[in-house]
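Hi everyone, sorry if this is the wrong subforum. Our group has a chain we'd like a structural model of before ordering constructs, and none of us has done structure prediction before. Sequence below.
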Amino acid sequence: MAARLTLADLDPGTREALAKGIAEFNNWRFYDCHETLEDVWREVGSKGEEGTLADFYQGIIKIAAGFHHVLRGNQKGAVNLLSDAFRLLEPYRPVTLGVEVERLLSDVRPCLDRVLELGPGRLREFDRTMIPHIAWDEP
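Answer:
Right subforum, don't worry. Here is the predicted structure as tokens:
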């Protein structure tokens, strides 16, 4: 991966969308977060230097979508999405664009483990207080 980009390196629209997506995630508006960041992901995927962040955005999108599935009782969807987020976000540890990726992944791990442990029949027993917030240094 190229040199780490900072929030200051992003165009204002992308910074605003990232802030909006993180706020949506932290307010459990996981579907909205997915939609907001998917637009950014599609746009940056075709750009030069910012294009290196496509997997970063997709990883956050998958975590949001995974928790959306947890809240809807879809264990298989939650497991697939949350698991894949680890692969996507690994290169962005510990911090990217002010997002504490290391902390996010360590907070998601016990959630994924619990979703696996509960299985599809008991997912309603998932303790929603386990759902993490995305910690980041806002601009």
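For your construct planning: The chain has a mean pLDDT of 91. Strands lie at 95-96, 99-100.
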